[in-house]
Amino acid sequence: MDERRTVKVSKYLSKHLRHQPERIGLTLDEGGWTEIDTLIAAAAAHGFRFTREELDHVVAANDKQRFAIEGTRIRASQGHSVEVDLGLPPATPPPYLYHGTVARSLDAIRAAGLKPMSRHDVHLSADRETANRVGARRGRPVVLTVDAGAMHRDGHVFHVSANGVWLTAAVPARYLRFPGPH
Prior knowledge:
The protein is α+β, with helices and mostly antiparallel strands. Helices cover 32% and strands 18% of the residues. It has six helices and nine strands; from the N terminus they run αβααβββαβαβαβββ.
């Protein structure tokens, strides 16, 4: 499977398993799962055909492990804008986590902290490199340091998804460290 096809199928899966399942007549259960055969049939009925082998390749090859398969079911690992309960237990975060963004967002973040926006949770990375890659998707990246240890001590709840993304409801500005001038 060539890289362009892999990306195309991955984006299609993200759109319909995270944001718009109803657009192709798909119903996700409360945990975000759907039957693989149902997904493939719904996609085909709406003009986007892919095979089970292509799906398996996309799931296995995705560097961010965006999707999880359990038996005959599939779901997005996180990043949903539709209501789902991923069933992730609370987890103790490392002392610091990181968030990649761009300079144009810094004033709003300084004022209100990190908010989930259209998602259910704020997504944080365990390392600067990953946060840098995330921020670079929208322009020149800026990496913020999150004092996750202090947040946790203060009662904020964290979860970690199957692919290692740390999730929390919001990050108040007082727990953020902003980089100096570039």
